[in-house]
Design goal:
Layout (H helix, E strand, L loop, with lengths): L22 H11 L5 E4 L6 H8 L3 E6 L7 E2 L12 E4 L6 H11 L2 E7 L9 H6 L4 E4 L18 E7 L6 E2 L7
Parallel strand pairs: 1-2, 1-4, 2-3, 4-5, 6-8
Antiparallel strand pairs: 5-7, 6-7
Helix pairs in contact: 1-2
């Protein structure tokens, strides 16, 4: 089985495919979903940016990561672990997004992944989409800056993809940035 560890190039963030989610992306998602307070597993918590926002909305958040970051429980490989939770919400390592989706769906009734906007535009992911159609595809109307402080302008578009047990009629809504 693949590990959540990904070999990277020259960027220090790439070693673990580590790009902290800007808080406004998580705020937009949580405002849209309006989930009642529940237990959410954030299995790629990094510095806790997403976990902190989820907790602000009254959720109990289980924060873990493969790396030991000083936030949450380190040394936990999501792809070989399980936690009792109502939802899995994360920004998965891009190279393992399909595996994160499949494992998330085995662990929770609601699964939400932050993905590149063109994620579903690949023949190799068609089967995953057909076998597990999401309830929502929620493109962000801005480009989140995952590398703030590094002087780089964001160049990629992102979307939240949401699976909810029993809802396989994929709907599409744009999410605004206003927090």
């Amino acid at each position: 089985m693949k590990s959540a560890l990904i070999a990277g190039g020259g960027n220090k963030n790439e070693g673990f495919d580590y790009y902290p989610t800007p808080p406004e992306a998580t705020h937009a998602l949580v405002r849209f979903l309006e989930l009642p307070p529940c237990t959410i597993w954030e299995p790629a918590c990094g510095n806790g940016a997403m976990s902190d926002v989820l907790a602000q909305y009254g959720h109990e958040v289980i924060s873990s990561d493969l790396r030991h970051t000083g936030y949450g429980e380190g040394g936990i490989d999501f792809l070989s672990g399980n936690r009792e939770c109502d939802a899995v919400i994360t920004n998965p390592p891009f190279g393992l997004a399909a595996e994160f989706i499949a494992h998330g769906l085995r662990n929770a009734e609601t699964v939400v992944m932050l993905l590149k906007a063109h994620y579903w535009h690949a023949a190799k992911r068609r089967k995953l989409f057909e076998e597990h159609p999401p309830a929502w595809v929620l493109p962000l109307t801005w480009r989140p800056n995952f590398l703030e402080g590094r002087g780089k302008s964001p160049t990629m578009d992102f979307q939240w993809t949401v699976w909810m047990a029993g809802d396989t009629d994929t709907k599409y809504r744009l999410l605004g940035r206003d927090v």
